Amino acid sequence: MKQMLIKSKTTSYPIYLGTDLLKRLEQYINPSYTSVLVITDQTVATYYLDDVMNALKQFSVHHIVIEPGEQSKSIEQFYDIHTKALSFGLDRHSLIIALGGGVVGDLAGFVAATFMRGIDFIQIPTTILAHDSSVGGKVAINHHLGKNLIGQFYVPKAVIYDVATLRTLDKREIRSGYAEIIKEALISDEAFFNDLLLTNIYQTDAKTQVNHLYHGMRIKASIVQQDEREQNIRRYLNFGHTLAHALEQQLGYGQLTHGEAVAIGLLFALYISANEYGNKHTYLVLLDWFKKHDYPLMIPKINVNDLLNRMKVDKKVVNRHIQMVLLKSVGQPELKCFTDREMVEYITSFFSELMKGIDK
Ligand SMILES: NC(=O)c1ccc[n+]([C@@H]2O[C@H](COP(=O)([O-])OP(=O)(O)OC[C@H]3O[C@@H](n4cnc5c(N)ncnc54)[C@H](O)[C@@H]3O)[C@@H](O)[C@H]2O)c1
Ligand SMILES: O=C(O)C(=O)C[C@@H](O)[C@H](O)[C@H](O)COP(=O)(O)O
Ligand SMILES: [Zn+2]
Question: Which stretches are annotated as coiled coil (predicted)?
């Protein structure tokens, strides 16, 4: 088993990464909690809820199963979980467990952050993508005007990553998760990026996959430890997300997974970087790699002004100017603001070039 300790200014918490941790879950949980509430989604529940409930038999344990998908990060779902938690009799000494991908983690984490002004929670990620979302304490639900607009920084007590759960992920979820690993490599580690470019993510052995996850988590850990509240370098973790979040909303949640949208967002940020700093190599090799892995890059007609307006709700916006994370070179991210006009030009030329690039 691999282990890491995330130390921030205010607190610290362990990450355990290994196989068959679910069955030994009670070893990692303080026995003094008055009750435990497991929050998961329907798909994850069919595979893993029994294991978790059995492992927690000594606790007064409850569970809530939500519908899978981004639509569940809603104010209605959030309120419903609060209602159920109250009816189960949870108190300030109870624990919430988020068992699932980033949707469950973000939602359950935000419930934990707000229930009776905050109770403990533990992340049990079950997707590749959640190697990112389970670390760093960003918890949130969506507002109809934008993604993750209602949220908190609220760190878990622990992250327990049983990588055996990843065996049931389908191809779409594998590529979705790898988009965030690629992001982490691009902003900080050229050798890792080059290594990923040589990988076929659908045919990796378990050991290689775990190494990729561990590497990605170490990059994320190192950033959030230095800048827990995104005052500075944590903004780089948003590489690719300004366009990604806007696209996810414009197309309708679920049309693209978060990671698939991030993949397009990474290309967009690299396309602008190439224009600003004059080197298109990274854009081209990544486009090629995404094509080889069947990332959905063919986007139906984009409404450029609508997309721009959605991008302007991004949390990095400064004085109503869109602030993009760009790459001077791999491992050298930089922030740059753009006028609306510049952005419209970039969105238009990027999508036109992307559609041509896909045909090749
Ligand atoms: N808080 C953060 O720092 C952060 C970081 C990245 C992404 N996010 C958020 O995370 C969310 C995306 O997370 P995600 O991609 O994990 O999505 P998800 O939670 O919706 O999971 C993807 C799909 O995989 C299924 N699934 C989960 N585990 C499975 C397993 N082991 N086997 C089979 N199926 C499984 C789920 O039921 C779901 O249908 C987005 O809402 C995004 O905004 C947050
Ligand atoms: O942890 C971070 O910081 C990130 O930016 C990680 C992103 O992958 C993640 O999608 C995050 O939720 C986006 O941040 P947001 O503040 O724009 O919601
Ligand atoms: Zn993300």
Answer: none
Q: Give dist(CA 62, CA 97) in Å, integer.
A: 10
Helices 171-188 and 190-197 pack at an angle, to 10 degrees, of: 150
Biggest alpha carbon distance in the chain?
A: 61
Q: How far is Cα 186 from Cα 32, in angstroms, rounded to an integer?
A: 42
pTM: 0.98
Instruction: Output the CA 262–ligand 3 centroid distance in Å.
Output: 7
Question: What pLDDT sits at residue 250?
Answer: 95
Beta bridge partners of 6: 13
162: buried, middle or exposed (CB in 10 Å: 19+, 13-18, 0-12)? buried
The full set of domains in the chain, from first to last, is 2-168 (3.40.50.1970), 173-359 (1.20.1090.10)
> Residue 92 has which token pair?
């300030």
Residue nearest ligand 2's atom 16 by CA = 315
Determine whether 237 is exposed, middle or buried from the number of CB atoms within 10 Å of its CB (0-12, 13-18, 19+).
Answer: buried
Coil, strand or helix at 86: helix
For the chain, which ranges sit under pLDDT 50? none
Distance (Å, rounded) from C-alpha 148 to C-alpha 159? 21
Q: In whole angstroms, what separates CA 272 from the centre of its chain?
A: 23
Q: What is the separation of C-alpha 159 from the centre of its chain, rounded to a whole number of angstroms? A: 14
Helix (H, G, I), strand (E, B) or coil at 223: helix
- Going by alpha carbons, the residue nearest to atom 4 of ligand 1 is 133
Residue 163 burial (CB < 10 Å; 0-12/13-18/19+)? buried
Give the pair of three-digit tokens for residue 357. 């690039």
ipTM value for the complex: 0.99
